[in-house]
Design a protein that fits this description.
Elements: E1 2-7, E2 9-11, E3 18-19, E4 26-27, E5 33-35, H1 37-53, E6 56-63, H2 68-77, E7 81-86, H3 95-109, E8 113-117, H4 128-136, E9 139-149, E10 153-160, E11 163-170, E12 173-177, H5 189-195, E13 202-204, H6 236-247
Parallel strand pairs: 1-6, 1-8, 6-7, 7-13, 8-12, 9-12
Antiparallel strand pairs: 2-5, 3-4, 9-10, 10-11
Length: about 250
């Protein structure tokens, strides 16, 4: 089975984000990067699927040449090959542009199933996976927390606002994964050494115009400092008053 896992390079969770000089982008000076959290779960599920059904896993990302670092890490965990679709302005792509470029490569690979994180931890819009499925004309199952795949079909449990839903679907499919589906493995020394010198292929990323235009980026307003309204039972009335008149939550 041909399996693909799409990952995104995002700023680390400790990054101090600053607005760029143009007021429409982020200042990337000095930023450190990592693979998006949910993408770790996606790659782990791709590797588990390979181990169960046999086949190979290709990790795909859109980004600069340096994104080979994240791709190589997942190859050390068990992915067979990796690919960087080179775009130094990957962070400026909207979901449609990203999905369309990924769809072109997935078709060329002949993949039968694609795993993605349910959201990227920088944009948090949960749109690329479903858009990718739309461009491919495939089934799409989102927010998956349990999965059983066979060679031509699958059954998944997915989280919804109303509870856990069980669905059946035919392959090929795009599956976006959520926390709880698995516990991502860590690369061992043997895996790290095996891929240390292995080249990561690069290809120019398909140029696709954005439909979403960023007009302005700004930091959220600073939170007001907290205050202590009293102690013990005597503070209850003052707390209720503050929540009602100041915070507007009651």
């Amino acid at each position: 089975m041909k399996i693909a896992a799409c990952i995104k390079r995002v700023p680390t969770t400790e990054a101090q984000i600053k607005v760029g000089a143009d007021g429409k982008s982020l200042d990337t000076t000095g930023l450190q990067y990592m693979a998006s959290f949910y993408d770790e779960i996606a790659v782990e599920e791709a590797i588990k699927t390979k181990e169960k059904l046999t086949g190979d896993v290709t990790v795909i990302t859109i980004g600069p040449s340096d994104a080979s670092k994240e791709v190589r890490e997942f190859m050390a965990r068990g992915a067979d090959t990796g690919l960087v679709l080179k775009d130094d302005a990957w962070h400026a792509r909207d979901a449609r542009s990203t999905a369309k470029a990924l769809a072109t490569k997935v078709k060329a690979l002949g993949a039968q199933v694609v795993f993605c994180g349910k959201v990227a931890t920088d944009r948090d819009n949960a749109a690329v996976g479903p858009m990718l499925a739309t461009y491919l004309g495939w089934a799409c199952v989102t927010d998956v927390v349990s999965l059983a795949l066979e060679n031509d079909k699958g059954t998944a449990k997915r989280e919804t606002e109303h509870g856990v839903e069980t669905v059946s679907f035919a392959l090929p499919a795009v599956i976006t994964v959520s926390k709880g589906l698995n516990e991502p493995r860590r690369p061992n020394l043997k895996g790290i050494m095996a891929v240390k010198a292995k080249p990561i292929p690069e290809e120019p990323c398909e140029a696709v115009a954005n439909q979403a235009v960023v007009n302005k980026v700004e930091q959220p307003a600073p939170r007001k400092a907290g205050r202590i309204v009293g102690e013990g039972a005597a503070a209850v009335n003052a707390l209720v008053t503050a929540l009602r008149s100041e915070a507007g939550v009651l």
